[in-house]
Amino acid sequence: MRAVRCAACGAGSFPPGDWCRVCSSPDVSSWLLASEGRIEACAVFDGNAFAEIRLDDGMLVGGRIEPAERASVGARVRFAPRDGIVEFTA
Amino acid sequence: MSEVAIIGVGMTRFTRQPERSNQDLAEHAISAALSDAGVSQRDIGAIFSGSVRARSGNGQRCVKAMGFRGVPIVNVENACASGSTAMREAYAWIKAGLCDVALAFGVESLSSEPKGPLVLPRGNWMIDAGLTLPSWYAMQASRHMARYGLTREQLGSVSVKSRKLAQHNDVAHFRDPVTLEDVLASPVVADPLTLFQCCPKTDGSAAVVLASEAAARRLGATGVRIRATALGSGTAVFTDRPIEIPTARRVSIEALEKAGIGTEDLDVVEVHDAFSIGEIIYSEALGICPPGEGGRYAAEGRSLPGGGGVAVNTSGGLLSRGHPLGASGLAQVAEIVWQLRGVCGPRQVENARLGAVHTMGANEFELDGNICSVFVLEKAAHA
Predict the structure, then answer these.
(1) What is the mean pLDDT of residues B314-336?
(2) 3-class state of residue B144 by DSSP
(3) CB A9 within 8 A of CB A20
């Protein structure tokens, strides 16, 4: 999973784009995110778990959690991409 | 520069009324607001219409039979803050001298949409992965529980308080009181949020008439003064930098600073409780209680009129009055105007002089709250 890193202010932005989302500089380059992290906030609706995850490199990202019943604040998760959906396994 | 006053407010009952068209609902709210202000269509110099789900040209469609004579009509879509943003545009036009009396209204018909959470547009990576509005709010609740120890009972107490006040509000969607047990035993929507902690799909309209000070005097109208307004958008959530100040807080501070007051000067506020957790985090954002204390503030009854704090959502809020998206912001404004006029009966806050309206709009989840609108309203000195 990739993000961009800003050469001007050093911040990471996800999803990757043409500008830094923190300082608006266009001087960004692609960067491989850490593949593991910890759930900071999560909720389950209709069997679907969605979470905000603090990756081990400090980036906050959002994604689906499988299996849904293992989604809880503080749980460790690992990135496992599926069909274009950002998904993590708990 | 001229001050701007709200000289009239009006709304339909907020309820399930799918047989009524947007036009029918809006005509009712607009005529109520015009008559409340003591003005006629001829006095209105511009119209601002707020809706989220309506087809293009909704403002023109809604007022076409009312005899407005060709004045500018601007359609505003700004998610749940559409009505609030329409009012801010009316305010800005009067401030800029483009007109001296303006009408803002909001209208929405939601009850005929599919049951369950509001259907959000696909093609967004988070929505495609299964994120819904109740789950987004439930995520905020999970963070609050982990960080501050917010309890399920504190969350549920927001809905109990909301119904307790809404039974005295004859425009509210839900007017039957509920107990904490009822709230916690209602079906789980997105844990920890149960059904009674989620706003209903409501049909309704609300309208306000704004005037410059000079025009209000000419028309013999008494107004509630708009002391300050602030509107902001969210900043990026998914970075490795902490959000220095959440959008809901940043815009609140801006409005309070422009008004030259502190939160402690407010008597009554309406905040965006589309879900129970909303009232908690947005009360904190306005500074009504310290960060992390919103749950306790609600559970201890301090948000009630006479509860010893700033009264919150005396109308029953979005949870009980209902949430017809584009109309909600102006219904919030109507409640504060009624509070400042002292006409709220059993839900009245004694001697209310200063109030605030805090509206959020959210469905772009890469941003920390995609829209926040805050108004500070003040009882006219001679009223």
Answers:
(1) 98
(2) helix
(3) yes
Each residue's pLDDT tens digit, B166-215: 999 999 999 999 999 999 999 999 999 999 999 999 999 999 999 999 99
3-state DSSP assignment of residue B124: coil
CB B90 within 8 A of CB B104: yes
pLDDT of residue A9: 97
- Determine what percent of chain B falls in helix, strand and coil, rounding each to the nearest 5: 40, 20, 40
CB A69 within 8 A of CB B165: no
Is A32 near chain B, with CB under 8 Å? no
Query: Burial, A24: exposed, middle or buried (Cβ in 10 Å; 0-12, 13-18, 19+)?
Result: exposed
Interface contact B132-A45, CB threshold 8 A: yes
Interface of B with A in 189-218 (CB under 8 A): 189-191
Task: Tell me what pLDDT residue B222 has.
Answer: 85
If DSSP codes are grouped into helix, strand and coil, which group holds residue B206? strand
Residue B290: CB atoms within 10 A of its CB come to 11
- Name the closest residue on chain A to residue B237, using Cα atoms: A60
Which residues of B are part of the catalytic machinery? 80, 323
The β-bridge partners of B357 are: B270, B375
* Percent of residues, chain B, with pLDDT higher than 70: 99
**Where are the strands (E) in A1-90, listed by range?**
2-6, 12-13, 28-32, 36-45, 48-55, 60-66, 76-79, 87-89
